[in-house]
Amino acid sequence: MKKKKPDSIVWDNTNDSYFAKILPYSSSLSGPIIKVPNVDAFKKRSVDKVSKLFRAELSDLQAKIESFVSIVSDTELVYNSEIKFEPIVGETYYLYEGNNKNFLSLIEPSQWSKKHIGTFRLNGDFKWERK
User: Fold this and answer.
1) Contact, 18 vs 10, CB < 8 A?
2) Is 121 helix (H, G, I), strand (E, B) or coil?
3) For residue range 18-70, what is the model confidence (pLDDT) as tens digits?
4) Radius of gyration of the chain measured on its C-alpha atoms
5) Is-contact 103 123, C-beta < 8 A?
6) Of 77, 81, 104, 111, which has the fewest Cβ atoms less than 10 A away?
7) Residue 31: its pLDDT value, please?
8) What is the Cα–Cα distance from 16 to 67, expressed in whole angstroms?
9) What are the boundaries of each domain within the chain?
């Protein structure tokens, strides 16, 4: 039976050799202290920061989606109404409730007693924006 070496000796039983010189750290008791960095604090700070960024981006996307849905519904509302003239880009028009169908007009609500649905402006992309 082989004699067991003391714990302070770095010995490889399979190769029957010392391997202290190839270790990336000190194997003696007088070697420098190995300090493990606190990665948990780093992870927590990083997760908090990234979560805050994701929430901000999500909020921006929700605002963009709401704006998009509003423009789509307004554009659809105007284009589904009766238009008897060719609207000019950049001009303001008024949408009124008709007997059978809504209609677009140049006449302001203060000059007419019809039920006013909304005031719209045609932009350069031919989308209708509510004013």
Assistant:
1) yes
2) strand
3) 777 777 777 777 777 778 888 898 999 999 999 999 999 999 999 999 999 99
4) 38
5) no
6) 111
7) 79
8) 75
9) 38-130
CA torsion, points 24, 27, 33, 39, in degrees to nearest 10? 50
Among 3-7, 19-23, 96-100, 105-109, which is the least confidently predicted range? Answer: 3-7
Structure tokens at 18: 């010392």
Alpha helices by DSSP H, listed for the chain, are 39-79
pTM across the whole model: 0.61
Rounded (5°) CA angle 96-99-105 = 30
**pLDDT confidence tier of residue 8, bands split at 50, 70 and 90:** low
Distances (CA, A) of 67 to 61, 78, 95: 10, 17, 20
Q: How far apart are the first and last CA of the chain?
A: 96
Q: Taking the CA of residue 6 as centre, how many other CA atoms within 13 Å lie in the half-sphere pointing to its CB?
A: 5
